[in-house]
Structure formats: structure tokens, C-alpha cells
Amino acid sequence: MTTENTAPNRTDGVLTYAKVGDLTLESGAVLPDVTIGYETWGTLNEAGDNAILILHALTGDTHVSAGHVRADASEQDRAYAEAAGWWPTAVGPGRVIDTDKYFVISPNMLGGCYGTTGPASPAPASIDPEQKPWGSRFPLVTIRDGVRAEKRLLDQLGVTSLHHVIGGSLGGARAAEWAVTYPELVRSCAVIASGPAATAEQIAWGHMQNLAIRQDPAFAGGDYYPGPGPVTGLALARRIAHTTYRSAAELHFRFGRDAQDGHNVLHPLTAERGRYQVENYLDHHGTKLTNRFDAGSYLAINEALLSHDLGRDRGGLEKALARTTCNWTIAYVDSDRLFFPSDSHILAASLPNPVEPAVIHSPCGHDGFLIEHEQLERILATSIETQDAADEAKPQGRKHLWAVA
């Protein structure tokens, strides 16, 4: 499933590792010997400027779409590459994000558990001679820290300019930070179901999720490895989060006040009462996450999301965005109650050249950006076509003025 190199991965959709060195964090701490897990699709052109960076959401991974492997690939790599991925209709040959034309890169967020250095990763020998997992010693990382680590990956891959940076939710925050931190590198930025900063309400929701994990006795202060850890707390955190990912109208339409078949929700003993369908739904999603995600990484990435603020130490939002030179596409889900439509409008209105946000119509709430594929893909198709036209319109001798040396 994994290989380790510093060159473009010519086998599509296989998890690859790149070492990007020591990283000085916003906090001043140094995270040594950072590794980034990533996948690629397509081929980087000679100019290094046909790259599209796709950034996952909170508990997402690098496997955006199915890929293919060489005939001599291992069965493990083959099975991994052939899995559909979380955005299979948008990324691939001939699709909106055409891997016959663009070089697509999908990195795992700093602090994650899908190949990138995180709390479950072994600490380097310089920190711990026994190289036990980082656990409670893992430092606070921010969205900006993650973007700076990803920039080192792109440097290794030979990327000189990004045709697009695209992300939804946490990925949208990462995409916007990319445009502000590296304006000379980003030609177009698509921010989906996100905003310019974590709001007080989003911090409150995140705080409850983090407490659910930290107050599970199995968390052990963060040093629960190699055991299963705080699975009860992680499942509860996911229940809280998932409630914010769906709309009240959808939950009412799907479940209402209905009980599970054969359950008595008015049992005389509270401890033995039956279950409402919506309770079972949340329990399912909580348990499902514990089978694929690390609680320490959930905390690390959730804390990074809470740190999100494009204007921090940059003179405010408008001054931060004034440094950007890219084309912007901003879209929101009209029923989103985690990143409200107003978050997108604030971001769009604060740009040096304000844009009108696109609307994804969905009854499903925040998760609508993952559900309404056709609407989102139409929005992205327009954004990509616009950037293609802008590239073609540049004089031949000036085509790569934005490229980084």
C-alpha cells in the first residue's frame, strides 16, 4: 500500500510517503522529521504547472478516487488503488477534474492518521530513544502549519504553480489558507462549505467533541497507544459532530419521532426504554468512525480547525485576502448549520475582487457538499474552465510569471 519517494507517483491512487524534514510550528515548537502521506493521479507536466491540490475534510483521507497500478504492483496496492474513494464522480480520466490533463495531489492533513505524522506516529529517536508514539507529547498544529508542510511536499514533487486548490469544510479552510500563504503559487482557489475563520459556535461544537474524547478514562491523557484508546469518547464526539453535519429538516423527514421496530420508547424504566431511530442512526455513525480513525488525530485536526483564522496576525481578514491574486470560487450549502451561508458571504465579500458565492441546494445540511455531486461538479467545472481560459489568454512569454523559482 505504501512507497516512499520524493518524485511524482506514477501509479495512480496509491498511498505514498514523503519526508519533509523538521517543521517550526506557529506556536514556536518544532515538530521533527515530519512525514506526509499523499496520493496522486495523472502526470505532472514539464512546466510543473498543471497540478490540482485536493484537501480532505476533518476525518477524510487521501483516497479521493480509484486509480490504477502497474502490472507488477502488489495485491495490496492493487486493492487499495481500485477502491472507489470519497469523490469518485469528480476525479478521474475525462471527469471534471480530468486526470488525463491535470496532476492531482491529495495529502493527509498534518496530525492525521492516514500516512502523515500525528499523535499515533512513533516519535523520532532524537525525542524518544524507544520511539514510542507521540501521544500526549504531540504539539498543537494549526491549519497554517499543515499548509506549510504540504508546500514542502509540492516542492519535492516539482510543482511550480497550482491550477487549483480545492477543499470542502476543513479542506476549504486549508484551501483558503493556501491562497493567502502562497499567493504566488495558487492560480485558482475553490472553497466549499467553509469560511474565513472558526466562529464562536464552531469552537463550542468542537469543544464538546474534544471533551467527549478527553474525558473518556481510556484516553489516559493521550498516552493510550498501542491500546484501542477512547473509543467511547470518539464515538460520542462523532455523534455530536454528525448532528451538525445534517439539517434539522432532514433528520425530521428521515426519522421524526419514530422508534426502532419493536422498541417501546415509553418503557417504565428509563434504562430499559427502547430506542428512537435517530439515536440508532447517530450510534451507527459513531461506531463506524472508531473502526477507521484515531482519537488522537481527531483531537489534533479538530484543534487545527478551531485555530482557523485567515486574518490572524495579518491585520485582519481583508488585509490577509488582499495579498491573494488567484481566481476564487466560493460555494455554500443552503441548509448548512455548521458553516452557515453567511460564512461564505463574508469570505466572498472580503476578497479584493468580491465574488457572488454559488449555492448548493440540499436538504441534507453541511454534508450536502459530499452528497450533491452534480451541483458541486457543475460549479467546479465552471471554475476550472475559467482558469483554463485565463491561462490560454496569457501572453506566451509571460505564461509562468506566477511560478515559484
UniProtKB/TrEMBL annotation:
<keyword id="KW-0486">Methionine biosynthesis</keyword>
<dbReference type="GO" id="GO:0009092">
    <property type="term" value="P:homoserine metabolic process"/>
</dbReference>
<feature type="binding site">
    <location>
        <position position="367"/>
    </location>
    <ligand>
        <name>substrate</name>
    </ligand>
</feature>
<dbReference type="GO" id="GO:0004414">
    <property type="term" value="F:homoserine O-acetyltransferase activity"/>
</dbReference>
<dbReference type="Pfam" id="PF00561">
    <property type="entry name" value="Abhydrolase_1"/>
</dbReference>
<keyword id="KW-0963">Cytoplasm</keyword>
<feature type="active site">
    <location>
        <position position="336"/>
    </location>
</feature>
<comment type="similarity">
    <text>Belongs to the AB hydrolase superfamily. MetX family.</text>
</comment>
<comment type="subunit">
    <text>Homodimer.</text>
</comment>
<dbReference type="InterPro" id="IPR000073">
    <property type="entry name" value="AB_hydrolase_1"/>
</dbReference>
<feature type="binding site">
    <location>
        <position position="238"/>
    </location>
    <ligand>
        <name>substrate</name>
    </ligand>
</feature>
<feature type="active site" description="Nucleophile">
    <location>
        <position position="169"/>
    </location>
</feature>
<keyword id="KW-0028">Amino-acid biosynthesis</keyword>
<feature type="active site">
    <location>
        <position position="366"/>
    </location>
</feature>
<comment type="function">
    <text>Transfers an acetyl group from acetyl-CoA to L-homoserine, forming acetyl-L-homoserine.</text>
</comment>
<keyword id="KW-0012">Acyltransferase</keyword>
<dbReference type="InterPro" id="IPR008220">
    <property type="entry name" value="HAT_MetX-like"/>
</dbReference>
<keyword id="KW-0808">Transferase</keyword>
<feature type="domain" description="AB hydrolase-1">
    <location>
        <begin position="51"/>
        <end position="370"/>
    </location>
</feature>
<comment type="pathway">
    <text>Amino-acid biosynthesis; L-methionine biosynthesis via de novo pathway; O-acetyl-L-homoserine from L-homoserine: step 1/1.</text>
</comment>
<dbReference type="InterPro" id="IPR029058">
    <property type="entry name" value="AB_hydrolase_fold"/>
</dbReference>
<protein>
    <recommendedName>
        <fullName>Homoserine O-acetyltransferase</fullName>
        <ecNumber>2.3.1.31</ecNumber>
    </recommendedName>
</protein>
<dbReference type="GO" id="GO:0005737">
    <property type="term" value="C:cytoplasm"/>
</dbReference>
<dbReference type="GO" id="GO:0009086">
    <property type="term" value="P:methionine biosynthetic process"/>
</dbReference>
